[in-house]
Design goal:
The protein is an alpha/beta fold. Helices cover 45% and strands 8% of the residues. The protein has 14 helices and 7 strands. The chain has helices at 3-8, 15-18, 21-46, 60-67, 83-88, 93-101, 133-147, 166-177, 209-213, 225-240, 270-277, 281-291, 297-320, 339-351, and strands spanning 75-77, 154-159, 182-188, 191-192, 195-196, 217-221, 246-251. The strands form 2 sheets. Strands 1-2-3-7-6 form a 5-stranded parallel beta sheet, with helices on both faces. It has a two-stranded antiparallel ribbon with strand order 4-5. Helix 3 crosses helix 4 (60-67), helix 3 (21-46) packs antiparallel against helix 12 (281-291) and helix 4 (60-67) runs parallel beside helix 10. The protein is globular. 43% of the residues are buried. Bound molecules: thiamine diphosphate. Thiamine diphosphate binds at residues 79, 81, 129-131, 158-162, 165, 187, 189, 191-193, 254, 258.
Length: 366
């Protein structure tokens, strides 16, 4: 199935009727809040106030549209650009900002790089830096769900670069053989940092790879949130019905840098990026809502204003929140702390007794 083709030919996809105007507005609002966070985080990084940020500029429809097809008890195994999926699940924006600052309220207690989220309370599994690992984690968790007789499904997000990893292939193979209730969701954004997709695969499409493993492969316009939602919903229904995994390739473009440490002008031309600006997924959904008579320019202005004010206020609060207590680095790893870590913790507390004023540079991001 090529959902993008269906839509290009002017036939309304089923998703047009699957989503109510309220649902469309909810998706749109999440996309706008995600973009507003990225704008602010990028500015903070440029001002030297945030160490690092990984954006999803232009990819909001792909991850938010797909996550909308899931139930709250389904498991998300994100790469690192899918913060919007957490917002969609009702996670307060503050948790994302706290995580980026690595402060005392950060759910990962300052022990992860920014954007490497872990939100157990919303079934959002801990993000790993190595690319592709989430494909095997999602497959394993999907099988665990079945063994426990739960009908929850899992989804793994990865980029075109992730398809060159061993774990993508191992995850795909195992999931297909054992009909694991999982969805492999590739955000093909054209680049793996500076390496174009043409260096990741000799296949015509990423979706083609599904054939070799024995599962359906779907290629969808990743900037069309309705098409993404429809394709993912069908894959979720398949998985939940015990019919096994699906590979979805959402064709999109990373309009911004890979991360705030990257400079895409060194490896790609501006014309390409400009051409994708016209396909901005947020603009597309806004126009669609306006055509339905469900949204106005005034609504849009208000939404952007409130989203930007929200992140602006949060950035100030979260930046002022002190760092996590030093000894918290020993928490959460072992149920029972082994002797050598107990000794290290005691030594740390001896050198840095609680309440001692920290040197101001102690927690600066390198
Ligand atoms: C196993 C592994 N190799 C290399 C890296 C360094 N690295 C980090 S992100 C990245 C590119 C990822 O590209 P892609 O999977 O297409 O995702 P995108 O960033 O485009 O969303 C690379 C090579 C890594 N994190 N893990």
């Amino acid at each position: 199935m090529d959902t993008s083709e269906t839509r290009k030919k002017g036939k309304a996809g089923k998703a047009d009727t699957l989503l109510t105007p309220d649902q469309l507005r909810e998706i749109h609002r999440t996309m706008v809040r995600t973009r507003a966070l990225e704008e602010r985080a990028t500015a903070l990084q440029r001002q030297g106030r945030l160490g690092f940020y990984i954006g999803s500029l232009g990819q909001e429809a792909a991850h938010i549209g797909s996550a909308y097809a899931l139930r709250p008890d389904d498991w998300i195994f994100a790469a690192y650009r899918e913060g919007g999926a957490a917002l969609l699940r009702g996670l307060p924006m503050k948790a994302l900002v706290d995580q980026c600052f690595g402060n005392a309220d950060d759910p990962t207690k300052g022990r992860q790089m920014p954007c490497h989220y872990a939100f157990a309370n919303i079934n959002y599994a801990s993000i790993s830096s190595p690319i592709g690992t989430q494909c095997i984690e999602a497959t394993g968790t999907a099988m665990a769900m079945r063994i426990r007789k739960k009908d929850a499904v899992t989804i793994s997000y990865f980029g075109d670069g992730g398809t060159s990893s061993n774990d993508f292939h191992a995850g795909m193979n195992m999931a297909a053989v054992f009909k694991a209730p999982t969805i492999f969701f590739c955000q093909n954004n054209g680049w793996a940092i500076s390496l174009p997709v043409s260096r990741q695969t000799a296949s015509e499409t990423i979706a083609d790879k599904a054939v070799a493993y024995g599962m359906p492969g779907v290629r969808v316009d990743g900037n069309d949130v309705l098409a993404v939602y429809q394709a993912t919903r069908e894959a979720v229904e398949r998985a939940r019905a015990g019919k096994g995994p699906t590979l979805i390739e959402a064709v999109t473009f990373r309009m911004g840098p890979h991360s705030t440490s990257d400079d895409p002008s060194r490896y790609r031309g501006d014309a390409e990026t400009q051409s994708w600006k016209e396909k901005c997924p947020i603009e597309r959904l806004r126009r669609y809502l306006e055509q339905l008579g469900e949204w106005t320019a005034e609504d849009d202005e208000k939404l952007w204003e409130s989203a930007r004010a929200e992140v602006q206020a949060l950035a100030q609060t979260c930046e002022q929140t002190p760092p996590p207590p030093l000894n918290s680095m020993f928490d959460d790893v072992y149920a029972q702390l082994p002797w050598h870590l107990k000794e290290q913790r005691a030594e740390l507390l001896r050198i840095h007794p609680p309440g001692r004023k920290q040197e101001s540079d102690d927690y600066k991001f390198p």
